Amino acid sequence: MARQKLVTPQQINSDLDAEFVHYYDQHQTEEDLMGESAVQSRLIRYLVQVFEWLYRAEGWFVVSNLNIYRERVRNEYPLAPDVALFKGVVVAQPELRAFRSWRLYQPDRPAPQVVFEICSDTSWKDDIHTKPAKYAALGVQEYYAYDPNEPPYVPRQQGRLHGWQRAENTLAEQMPDEQGRLWSTELDSYLLPDGAYLRLTDRDGRVRLTQAEAAWAKLRELGIDPSSL
After folding, report:
1. Which CATH number is 127's domain given?
2. 3-class secondary-structure state, position 208
3. pTM summary value
4. Candidate from 85-99, 139-153, 176-190 with smallest mean pLDDT
5. What confidence tens digit (pLDDT) does each residue in 108-146 have?
6. What is the distance between the alpha carbons of residues 136 and 153, in angstroms, rounded to a whole number?
7. pLDDT tens readout for residues 3-32
8. From start to end of the chain, where are the E strands?
9. Burial 21-42 (b: 16+ CB within 10 A, else e)
């Protein structure tokens, strides 16, 4: 397991009060201007909740749409994945997660191990054809792109789910199995397309749950119908 890195409130405040400011921390990127559809927003929230519950004991940093910079260059154009998981990074006092951005050039700021992009009509080509190389250069270990739209914008013969895993200095595209799943080594999970949702399952096919879903499952085990509460 990677050594835990603790980001303290003092470090957060230091980041916020630093004199150096990246241009796109104060100005909109093209992605900001496009916004998100309801289906994108719903899936992004769902994935964040799955990871927060899955890694609740470790407390690893899970974030959505946070600007990531490689260098201390004011006009560097950031990458801001829809979902990013920083394994081994714990942010103290979650209510103080007031990062303007994640700066890889600062101490104890590793690249996220896993990132997700949720495809839209305007982003899917970039998500599939351009961003794998960008995330490889960032140091990401696994990158996944998913199209939750109906009908999907990605041509059906290509499938909704695309994934890449690190192979030396690049990200190599994965091939889905006969069920359309991709295995994530970093997440120790299968990724399974499910229409507007992207599910994670363990090796035995059990779905990784959110905290709310886990609570409902526990009630059912006790013979209580959650819908009756």
Report:
1. 3.90.1570
2. coil
3. 0.89
4. 85-99
5. 899 999 999 999 999 999 999 999 999 999 999 999 999
6. 24
7. 677 776 556 556 555 678 999 999 999 988
8. 5-7, 60-63, 67-69, 83-91, 101-103, 114-118, 142-146, 161-167, 170-173, 182-184, 189-194, 197-201
9. ebebeeeeeebeeeebeebbee
Q: Render pLDDT for 56-75 as a digit per residue (tens, 0 to 9).
A: 999 999 999 999 999 999 99
Please state, in angstroms and rounded to a whole number, the distance separating the CA atoms of residues 26 and 103. Answer: 15
Q: Which two tokens stand for residue 126?
A: 């970039």
Q: Give me the helix-helix angle, 38-54 and 211-221, nearest 10°.
A: 70
* 34 Rama sector, left if φ>0, alpha if ψ -120 to 50, beta otherwise: alpha
Between CA 54 and CA 167 the distance in angstroms is 26
**Assigned token pair, 68:** 């990531």
- Picking from 179, 199, 180, the residue whose alpha carbon sits closest to that of residue 189 is 199
Question: CA-CA distance, 187 to 181, in Å (whole number)?
Answer: 14
User: Total structural domains in the chain?
Assistant: 1
Domain of residue 207, residue span: 5-228
Which residues face 91 on adjacent strands?
7
Which residues on neighbouring strands pair with residue 116, listed in sequence order? 83, 144
Considering Cα of 58, then 119, then 169, then 188, what sign does the dihedral take? positive
Structure tokens at 87: 């394994």
